[in-house]
C-alpha cells in the first residue's frame, strides 16, 4: 500500500531554507549550474550549517516522538537542483538526526505543481518566485530571509515550539488591510468598528494555525508544548474583530500583541519565536536579525501588490 500522508501536517522546505547555502547559491548565480553541481559533489561530505527554517523544522519534528500523534509531521525536501546535489543535503539531515527521508529534486523545474499535488500545508523557501507561485496555487508559503541568520537555538533540549503570526493578510484575509492601504487608518478603524462582530475571512495561514491548535490539544499532557502568538499593528478598538474571529474559528492564541505601530522586533525576540510570519518585508527584515522570519506574498492580482 502507498504511504498515506493525507492526515499529516505536511511541510515542504527548500534546501536553501533549511541550510545555509548562500555561498553555494552565489556560485550558481555567477558561474552556472555545472559549476554549482561540481562544487556540491566535491563537498558532499561537508556538513551544512543550519539555516533559517531549521529551527522550526527541527522543533516540529520532535512531535513525531509523541505516540498518540501517530507521526503527525511530514517534512519533505523540495529543490530546483538536480538529484546529483542531493547527497550533501541528506548527509547533513542524517548528521542532525532529522526525521526527513523524502525529497523532490526538479532539475530546474517549477516546484509549485508538486506542492499542490502533495497538498502541502506549509512551504518554506528562500526564493520569492517559488513562494509567489505557491501562494497563487493557494499553498501557504513564505520567503525566509537568509542573508543574516542569527545563532538560533537548535539544541535537542527544546521543549516548547513557538510560532508567531501577523494578522491581516496572513491569518486573516487581506480585505481590511486593503482598506487601510487604499483609504488610510481612519477608514480602516471605522470599518473594523462597524464589523467588530463579523468574523474575518481566512487568510493563507489560517488552516496552518488551526492544525497547530488541534495538535496543541493533543499534547497537553506531554513534555512538549506549542505556543502561538499574534503580533499585529492593530490596537483597540480594532482588536475586537480579531478576538471574535479567533473565537469563531475555535482557536485560542496563547499570546496576543496589539502594538498599534510599535516595533515588533523586540517583542518577537522576547517571545523567542522559532519563526515569525508577516506579509510586510519591513517587519520581517527587522525581525530576521533576532529570530527566523518569513514574508508571506500576496496573491497575484491583489490590490496590495500595487504601489
TrEMBL record:
Picking any one GO biological process from the record gives: nucleotide metabolic process
The family database entries (InterPro entries) matched by this protein are listed as:
5-nucleotidase (IPR010394)
Superkingdom is: Bacteria
Identify the GO cellular component terms for this protein. Answer: cytoplasm
Q: Report the transmembrane regions from the record.
A: none
- Molecular-function annotations in GO: 5'-nucleotidase activity; magnesium ion binding; nucleotide binding
What Pfam families does the record tag this protein with? 5-nucleotidase
Which PANTHER family does this UniProt record tie to the protein? CYTOSOLIC 5'-NUCLEOTIDASE 1 FAMILY MEMBER, CYTOSOLIC 5'-NUCLEOTIDASE 1A
Instruction: Write down what this protein is called.
Output: 5'-nucleotidase
Amino acid at each position: 500500500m502507498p504511504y498515506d500522508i493525507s492526515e499529516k501536517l505536511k511541510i515542504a522546505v527548500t534546501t536553501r531554507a533549511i541550510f545555509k547555502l548562500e555561498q553555494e547559491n552565489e556560485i550558481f548565480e555567477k558561474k552556472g549550474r555545472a559549476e554549482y553541481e561540481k562544487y556540491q559533489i566535491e563537498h558532499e561530505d561537508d556538513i551544512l550549517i543550519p539555516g533559517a527554517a531549521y529551527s522550526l523544522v527541527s522543533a516540529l519534528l520532535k512531535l513525531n516522538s509523541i505516540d498518540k500523534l501517530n507521526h503527525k509531521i511530514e517534512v519533505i525536501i523540495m529543490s530546483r537542483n538536480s538529484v546529483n546535489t542531493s547527497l550533501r543535503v541528506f548527509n547533513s539531515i542524517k548528521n542532525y538526526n532529522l526525521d526527513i527521508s523524502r525529497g523532490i529534486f526538479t532539475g530546474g523545474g517549477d516546484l509549485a505543481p508538486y506542492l499542490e499535488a502533495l497538498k502541502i500545508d506549509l512551504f518554506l523557501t528562500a526564493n520569492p518566485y517559488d513562494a509567489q507561485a505557491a501562494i497563487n496555487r493557494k499553498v501557504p508559503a513564505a520567503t525566509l530571509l537568509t542573508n543574516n541568520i542569527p545563532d538560533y537555538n537548535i539544541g535537542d533540549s527544546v521543549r516548547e515550539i513557538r510560532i508567531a503570526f501577523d494578522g491581516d493578510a496572513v491569518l486573516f484575509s487581506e480585505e481590511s488591510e486593503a482598506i487601510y492601504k487604499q483609504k488610510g487608518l481612519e477608514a480602516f478603524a471605522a470599518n473594523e468598528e462597524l464589523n467588530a462582530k463579523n468574523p474575518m475571512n481566512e487568510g493563507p495561514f489560517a488552516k496552518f494555525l488551526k492544525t497547530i491548535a488541534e495538535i496543541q490539544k493533543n499534547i497537553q499532557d506531554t513534555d512538549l508544548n506549542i505556543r502561538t502568538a499574534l503580533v499585529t499593528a492593530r490596537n483597540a478598538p480594532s482588536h475586537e474583530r480579531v478576538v471574535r474571529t479567533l473565537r469563531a474559528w475555535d482557536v485560542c492564541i496563547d499570546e496576543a500583541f496589539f502594538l498599534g505601530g510599535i516595533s515588533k522586533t523586540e517583542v518577537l525576540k522576547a517571545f523567542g519565536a522559532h519563526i515569525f510570519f508577516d506579509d510586510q518585508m519591513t517587519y520581517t527584515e527587522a525581525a530576521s536579525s533576532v529570530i527566523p522570519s518569513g514574508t508571506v506574498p500576496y496573491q497575484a492580482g491583489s490590490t496590495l501588490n500595487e504601489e
